């Protein structure tokens, strides 16, 4: 199976890629070298079976003055990848950062919270 992993150099991605590589053909994209306007990621989404989207900005304090980068990476890129995956019939697994979860008053709940 061909698996594309975005955010491959992050905390989860750096562990997931070697694990998946044991049994699958894995391509890894890193946002530091591929911009939202590049077509490289589109070509790779088109040629994979599964997209695992881990790319995102997690440390708000590191760019507190630049909220746009969080919207671009955490929202716009995710939406664009989801649309491309849907358009080409690819499965997408999306794992987000805690920074986008908001208030966690229901943390530890043993029921579906929405």
What would your notes on this structure say?
By secondary structure, the protein is an alpha/beta fold. The protein has one domain: Rossmann fold (3-Layer(aba) Sandwich). The chain is 33% helix and 16% strand. The chain is built from three helices and four strands. Strands 2-1-3-4 form a four-stranded parallel β-sheet, with helices on both faces. The longest helix is centred in the C-terminal third of the chain and has 21 residues, at 67-87. The chain is globular, with a radius of gyration of 15 Å. The model has no long low-confidence stretch (mean pLDDT 78).
Strand order of the largest sheet: 2-1-3-4
Write down the overall mean pLDDT: 78
Please tell me the CATH architecture by its name: 3-Layer(aba) Sandwich
Overall 3D form: globular
How do the helices and strands follow one another from N- to C-terminus? EHEHEHE
- From the alpha-carbon coordinates, what is the Rg to the nearest angstrom? 15 Å
Overall number of structural domains: 1
Which consecutive residue ranges, at least 5 long each, have pLDDT under 50? none
Strand content: 15-25%
CATH superfamily annotation: NAD(P)-binding Rossmann-like Domain
Please identify the top-level CATH class.
Answer: Alpha Beta
Secondary structure class reads: alpha/beta
Query: What's the CATH topology label?
Result: Rossmann fold
Biggest beta sheet summary: 4 strands, parallel
Count of DSSP strands = 4
Distance separating the two termini: 31 Å
Helix tally equals: 3
Helix residue percentage? 25-40%
């Amino acid at each position: 199976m061909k698996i594309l992993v975005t955010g491959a150099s992050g905390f989860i991605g750096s562990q997931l890629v070697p694990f998946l590589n044991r049994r699958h053909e894995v391509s890894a994209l890193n946002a530091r070298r591929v911009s939202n306007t590049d077509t490289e990621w589109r070509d790779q989404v088109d040629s994979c079976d599964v997209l695992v989207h881990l790319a995102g900005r997690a440390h708000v304090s590191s760019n507190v003055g630049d909220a746009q980068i969080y919207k671009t990476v955490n929202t716009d890129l995710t939406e664009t990848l989801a649309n491309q995956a849907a358009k080409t019939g690819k499965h997408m697994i999306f794992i987000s950062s805690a920074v986008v979860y908001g208030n966690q008053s229901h943390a530890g709940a043993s029921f579906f919270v929405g």
